Amino acid sequence: MTSQDPSLENNNDMEWRSITQRRKFLQSSSAAILATTTAASTFLPSPSHAAAPQDAGEAIRRSAAKIPGYGPTDVFFSDAVQGSWKATRQVEFPGRSEPLTLQYPFRFVQSIENNAVVADRGINQAELEKALVEAVSKSNGGNAVRPSYDWTMTNPNDLRLILADGSKKEIKVTKRATENTENTVTSSEFQRITLEESSDEKGFSVPSVSARRVLTKWKILLDENNSTTIEALEVVYNVPTGGDPMAAGSSNAQPSVLSKSRILLTR
Fold it and tell me: 41 vs 26, which has greater pLDDT?
């Protein structure tokens, strides 16, 4: 029987101990990684989510907001602007030498989205329509009737008004883009406007449909007394053929300015 070289036996023992140590190291490392992952999932807060949709229509709107080209569901502001404001708007119209100065209530309300505030489009538009009637008719005594309206935060892109003369106006946002910084909120909205005049003697009325683009930039200002004011620039464009490239009419028609406004909100 041939005896084995002692040096070979020592080498085999060293290799076996090395393999055993590597296995123990890998096992302990895997256990440590698993424990760390479990602890992290336990102590790290789960991501916040918006409030659950209240109806099928709202769920569809939120889904559409995730599709490129549709944009967010609304224009969102910080909590600092929530509440009632006094709006002073100077409106310039093409062909009119002097701007109109309008004053009316303006309001921001809590959104159904978490930690967000939105403009109350219903009351704001109704008060604006009333202020326009008073300014044009020079009825400064506040005798104009505020239009009734139908608008909800769960359906912010659809606003319907019944004006003082009985005509109906619908403003529907079809596409939107927004950009927020610490002190500014910028938005671009495409809107479809449907106006249905009050019915004639036979009960007939033909609605007119137009499209416009509204560009707005809001700037939130804080003075040395910690008083907040908000300034905004708004430009409204008429969109030819309703923004539909398949509609009849010249495809080369360019948008035209309908109005330019400077808005100041104070408490």
Answer: 26
